[in-house]
Input
Amino acid sequence: MRPITHYRDELRTCSEAARDYQPNIVLIELGQNLDQVRVLVEEITASSPSSSIVGLVSADRISAGGSESTLMIQALRVGVEDFIRRPVSSRDLEQILTRRMTPKRVDSANLGRVISFISNKGGVGKSTAAVNTAVELARRFPQRVLLVDASLQMGVCATQLNLQPKATIVDAWQQRERLDGRLLRELATQHSSGLSLLAAPASAVESSEVDDAIVSRVLLLARRNYDFVIVDTFPLFDRVNMAILDLSDMAYVVAENVVPTLQTVRGFFELLADVEFPKDRQRIVLNRFSRSGSSPGRREVEQYLGRTVDYVIPFDKKIVQAANTGSPFVLSLSRFSKSKRAIRDLVDDILDGTSPPATMRVGTRVPNESVTESVEPDLLNRNGNAGHIDSRGDEMKRLTR
Output
């Protein structure tokens, strides 16, 4: 298991977090006042019914004259399902996870795949790769693919699709109290290829309202309503991108064979390792590949990065023209385009291992991570400021432990 943890130091904010993150397990510190716990349990049961509620029991929080067994019985009456004692042992924690993370506790609904395109360098064609991948998937699975433009401050997906969205991800935030799968579909803009787009905010000012909680909620809803969710990201490693990676089944790291860019990307791999994003869920895309001048070749790039390049998308002026005209190049009539072939190979990789039935739904996928909520103030708080891409080390580790 690879637990993904979110912490809240107040009971009143925990129910909101449960609604946004839909955790598998909610850990609640039990004290003398169980009335607050009862209200919280009721709210979580309503907003995140698949969450398992576990009480943390500490001897020093039991009232004088009381007993641990009495506290547990009272907690069971208000809806707590399981318990773990402090100090927490690794064995007790493992048993809790084993009991509460069994397949029968996981939402049985078919879940779509979340695929993110990431980079710590702007201008490498990440958005172009994301848009064309989404369009190629939608061409094969019409109405079953959602492209989320999470490049909040400079989203260009709508422009590359020649769309003028009437709603953006800001509308999802503004209507977060009633946001569900149906509303999410209504907020998405339709493209002639069969693709749905949840557009980025219209301005950088509007983007300041969107946080990691609403992005997580959008992606959780999206993968329950679409077979494939493609996410374009902003080239800055912040809390929003952390939330996207937490929910990504695969992340495509986009780079160019330009030495300064490769230097930055190599540092990016170190950051992905620091935040424990698995290497087997990463793919390397060498975009706009050209051997002109002194640019390194594919083998030189692999030696420098210490990683295998999975896909090479050659430089092609027609790709630039297509982006400028809002017409994805995968829809062009060219039958011998190497760039189009590379995108199709990438899409085949996404489809690898999935067997969509006649309804075009991907088979049930059981997540390999748990999202745990805690209301313990002495543990780390993920609400701290996330560092820039170059601010690696203890701060970024603190955000994800």
